Every structure is written in structure tokens, then in C-alpha cells.
Amino acid sequence: MKTLSLATALHLALTVAFAPAALAQDTLAPAAEAPAAEAPQAPGAEAQPPAAEAAPAETPPEADAPAAVFTMPDLPVIGVPVPGGVGYQPAVTEVAHDMHWLSHMVHTIMVVIVVLVMALLAIVILRFNKRTNPEPGRFTHNTRLEIAWTLVPVLILIVIGSFSLPILFKQLEIPAPELTVKATGNQWYWNYEYPDNEFSYDSLLLPREDLEAAGYSQDLYLLAADTALVIPVGAVVKLQTTGADVIHSFAMPAFGVKIDAVPGRLNETWFRVEEPGVYFGQCSELCGKDHAYMPIVVKALEAEDYAAWLDWAIDEYGGTRGEASVAEATAPAH
Questions:
Q1: DSSP labels for 215-261?
Q2: Are 167 and 94 in contact (CB under 8 A)?
Q3: Residues 223, 228: Cα–Cα separation, whole Å
Q4: Are 174 and 181 in contact (CB under 8 A)?
Q5: Is 200 strand, coil or helix?
Q6: Quick one: which of 271, 323, 331 has its CA closest to 303?
Q7: In whole angstroms, how far apart are CA 224 and each of 71, 184, 280?
Q8: pTM of this structure
Q9: Is-contact 183 191, C-beta < 8 A?
Q10: pLDDT for the residue numbered 69
């Protein structure tokens, strides 16, 4: 009995000794998990959500702007060489019209001179041969005739020069441009840069099997390129040319343009296209073994179509819109 009493007394003593600590732990744990007491709210103040529910709202990510979509309008093919052709491509710029007129005038003068010389030769042959003129004349010169055949050619050259020099100056004096493009000749393709919009792209010959997919017929093989130089109709375009390796030459017959692209040098000319359409040219300098495979394609668009193409090109090639719109600059005044 004594042993049982002692054991019971020891158990009771240990229970009493450790009971406060256990009670303290049981009391602290729920307190830590309980939410903090809400502060008293002033009358009239708006109720604030609990701290656990006041998570900051996520800002929805900005949706990417939709990429510009452009479909090239159906353009007539205007400036293109034709089999057996002996004339010029249709002139679609002011300079080209003047050049064609000057060429026709000079050729007319040449035809008149040739006919006159042939007539004089025929007269000499028929009237002064040995049979019809057995006694030849003994004179050696004729002063009036010598003055005439000296002055007449001089006057002809003055007439030709008085018309050709203004046209030459018109080619070289560039009006205030509404668009500047830079064409760089490479072996053997062109690179077109739009400095105002800070983008550029390459233009390479289209293989024969890709012509139909790009909208060209088979007879345009060696003339068609995978990308074209795109310009607006009615705008003054300043064309700058240079070469990246050897001398090339940018030639567009319908525009009256043929200018060398020389490495280390920046040549420039201008044109203003009158009609929307597709125009073809080629490098006109012997620039290496693939010289014949370096075509030039220019597509002239109406101002509204050009503005749409420019938006697409900026998205495609990574450029900027620029300060002014060519569509606005070329729009007719009301």
C-alpha cells in the first residue's frame, strides 16, 4: 500500500509540475493562427477588404497591335522590253518624255542630213561621170560653198544643244523630294533602303519555277525579282545609288533613268512617275559573271495604296513611320 501511495504521489507531482507549460503551448498556438483583430473603424469610413483579400490586381498584358496586312493591287505591266522591239518603252516621267522628244528630233535631223548627202552623191554620180561629163572642170574650191558647209553644221549643233542642255540640267537638278530611296548594287542583287522610314530589303532574281506564285508570267523570266522597289505615283522620288563591291548601273528606261552605282560614291537623280504600274529594268554595267541576272522591278502605286504598303513594310522590315506621310503630301489640294 505504501508503494502504491508513493507512486501515486510521484505521478501527481509530475503532472502538476508540467501542466502549466502544456497549457501555455495549447493557448499560444491558436493565437498565432487566429487573424489579427480588426481595428475599430471610424463612422462613415468605407469598409476596407481584409488584408488577405487585398491582393493587388494584375495588370492585363497589352495586346500586340495587329500586323498590317497588304495585298498588292492588280497593276498593269507598262515598262517592259518586248521581243523584236526597236523603240523605247512608254515614257511615264517628265524627263523621259523630254528625252524621247529630243531623240526623235535629233533622229529627224539625222535623216534629213543622210537624205541630203545621198542626193548629192547621186547627183555627182549621174551628172559628173566620165560618160556624161568627159571634160571635167578645173576649179579647186568654191568659197561660198565652203562657208555654207561649215556654217550649216554649226547651226545644226547649236539647235541640238539649245534643246539638249536644258533636258540634261533637268535630269541633274533635283526638285524638293517627297521620298528618298537608296539603291545599293551587290553581286548580283539590289538592296533598297528607305532612309526616312529606317528599313531596307534585298531584291533578287526570281527563279523560273517561282514566277507564277509571285504573280508574273513565264515571259518575264530574267526580268522579275522577288521584291520590288515600291514608290507612290505623282511624288518626287530622289534616287541615290552606290555600289557595295564593283560598279553597277541602275537603269529604268520608262523613267528616263540610267545612273552608275559606284563603290564609295553616292550618285543621285530623280523621277516622278505618272501612271501606276509595273516597270522593269536591269543593271547596265558589266559587273561580273551574273550581270545578266540582276533585274530591277519598280511598282508604282497610288498614294493610298502606297501608304498601306508602307505600313506593311514597316511591320515586315522593322522601320518607323517617319514625320510625314507621302499619301498626304501627294493628295490633291481641295
A1: T--GGGTTT-BSS-EEEETTS-EEEEEEESSS-EEEEEGGGTEEEEE
A2: no
A3: 11
A4: no
A5: strand
A6: 331
A7: 18, 18, 8
A8: 0.73
A9: yes
A10: 81
CB 281 within 8 A of CB 253: yes
User: pLDDT tens digits, residue range 240-250?
Assistant: 999 999 999 99
Helix axes of 143-172 and 94-127: crossing angle, nearest 10 degrees:
160
For residue 190, which amino acid is it? Answer: W
* Cβ-based neighbours of 153, under 8 Å, separated by 6 or more: none
Write down the residue that cell numbers 547627183 correspond to: 123
- In the block, cell 523630294 appears at 177
- Alpha-helical segments (H) within the chain: 2-33, 94-127, 143-172, 303-317, 326-330
Cα dihedral 206, 211, 215, 220 sign: positive
SS3 128: coil
User: Do 309 and 242 touch, CB atoms closer than 8 A?
Assistant: no
Of all helices (H) and strands (E), which one includes residue 279? strand 277-283
SS3 category, 317 = helix
Q: Which three cell numbers stand for residue 25?
A: 503551448
Residue 18, amino acid: F
The 10s digit of each residue's pLDDT in 100-157 is 999 999 999 999 999 999 999 999 999 888 888 888 888 888 899 999 999 999 999 9
**What secondary structure letter does DSSP report for 38?**
P
CB neighbours of residue 327 within 10 Å: 18
Q: CA 250 → CA 142, 157, 194, 281, distances in Å?
A: 51, 30, 16, 8
